[in-house]
Amino acid sequence: MDDMFPLKLQLSLILLCVVLLVLLINMIKKYELQLKYALLWIFVVVLMLAISVLPQIAFYFTRVFGFQAPSNFVFLVGIVSGLAIIFSLTISISNSSIKIRQMSQEIGLLKQQLHRLEMKVKDSNKEISAESELVRGEE
């Protein structure tokens, strides 16, 4: 093995990683993406950038784990990274779903309380109106 990626591939990967990193940072600055969701993406991009700049990393792990080719290791990193991001998003969606359900229940209870209060106010207004009619009738 000659411990190098083809130069065009290496430059393409570096350019892609830099563009993605700049895009992520701009989205965070513009509040289009929360930092907690972007951290995993940033980690993946930095990891891929490291592999692109130092292809010896891929060749080393290819030898250590017995992959047929360094590209297989790079694909594995990509697949595992994708699965980690999907798992992270699944957890986030699950937590959001739980919070939405709780908030919906709270809103339902608040609406019920509001309706009861409105009914009490209407009943009180009717009683006040009836009493004022009696007072006017006595005059």
Defining traits:
139 residues; 0% strand; mainly alpha; single chain; rod-shaped
Question: Can you characterise this structure?
Answer:
The chain has 139 residues and is an all-alpha fold. The protein has helices at 7-29, 35-53, 56-65, 70-138. Helix 1 (7-29) runs antiparallel to helix 2 and helix 2 runs antiparallel to helix 4 (70-138). The termini are far apart. The relative contact order is 0.07. The mean pLDDT is 90.
Determine the N-to-C terminus distance: 111 Å
> What is the chain-wise order of helices and strands?
HHHH
The largest sheet, given as strand count, sense and whether it forms a barrel, is: none
Count of DSSP strands:
0
- Rg over CA atoms: 31 Å
Regions with little confidence, pLDDT below 50 for 5+ residues: none
Shape: rod-shaped
Helix percent band: over 70%
Approximately how much beta-strand content do the residues carry?
under 5%
Count of helix runs: 4
Mean pLDDT: 90
| Secondary structure category | mainly alpha
